[in-house]
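Record 1 of the preview.
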Amino acid sequence: MNSIVWDVGVAVVVALAAFSLLVTVVIHVCVHLILARSRKEPHAHAPPISVLKPLKGADEGLYDNLASIAAQDYPGLYEIILGAADPDDPALWVAQQVRRDFPNVDIRIIPGRKGPGLNPKVSNLDALGAVARHPNLLVSDSNVRVGPTYLRHTAAELRNPAVGLVSNVLVGVGERSFGAALENLHLSSFVAGAVCCADALVRHPCVIGKSMLMRRAALDKIGGWASVQDVLGEDYLLGTALTRAGYRVVLSPYVITTVNACWSVSSFLSRHLRWSQMRRRIAPLAYVFEPVLSPLPWLALVILLASAHHGSMLGMRSAAWIQLALCGMGLKIGTDVLAVYRLRGSVPRGLAPLLIPVKDVVVLGLWVAAWTLRGVNWRGNRMRIGAGSALVPARRSGRSIAGVLWRAASRARS
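->
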């Protein structure tokens, strides 16, 4: 009986490892399929755009990030509106320098204003959108850096009047620290891959809020910024709401870069613990199956089982199983590196590819932790997250183990 249970357990682990590896390969193929849509010369459609840049602190390379949007080769009208809730935020000094260096670009700075709601980013966007002049709003995060044709390629998707929102493929760049390497590897493999796979295979809007171009009329139709002012996953929920309202949500193959150079490990843990909690409460059924998207832990478990069981396992020598699992690990790491190369034109720096197994194990730990934690610390705002990623103010009382772990993991700002 024990032998039968052992064989069944081993068979399940091997099947999960093989299936997970297959899924990973499919996901990375989807990245290549999406990028193959890219056009060298975008369609000549250049509607007026208001670029909304919410600021909070002097991010890494902030000047270059803001300058990249000011240096657009765009034949249509566009304005850039930058703002921070705190009138003394150091990011506003950088914004003023960019405005001085680009006198021919319509740049406005809105300090010390914020809208209602618990989501600090949406609160900032509400204030910026209130003064925007154009019928199309482009949300562009402060750590996003783009090429000169970004607006051309992204706005080209709006030539179809049925399109209500356009998001972009993203990749992390510039790692110079351990935490930044983990962040960029995860953004460029799991996050970018999941977004591309959702679009290529099931046409499901999986919007990442780093870059969102929306028709103002479409946003107003679903209730404006007020509809997402008290949720954590405003980007995903905006995409879902627009789809339900009859609009198309499309993914532009134009790749935007997010600059993460000197991140600490705690910053990486804080962000992705927050994102894990958000995904669990927005799509709980899909969240249950997320570990199947990461083959390395399953392959490592195959190696452990084979090492602990001398002789044969499922009719094959244990040494052969170990060799197969190691080959599977090599395939997973190789496809991740290839995806990074395809997205940013260069492979991860130095020994960064060797961190892929470490990153996957850490992310699996965050997946487990998100089942018990409910608190988020987002840019200094402490909140609790409920169903659908709804936010409520955090209660100060209580010192549960989960709360202690959360506070330790979220000391650094995201």
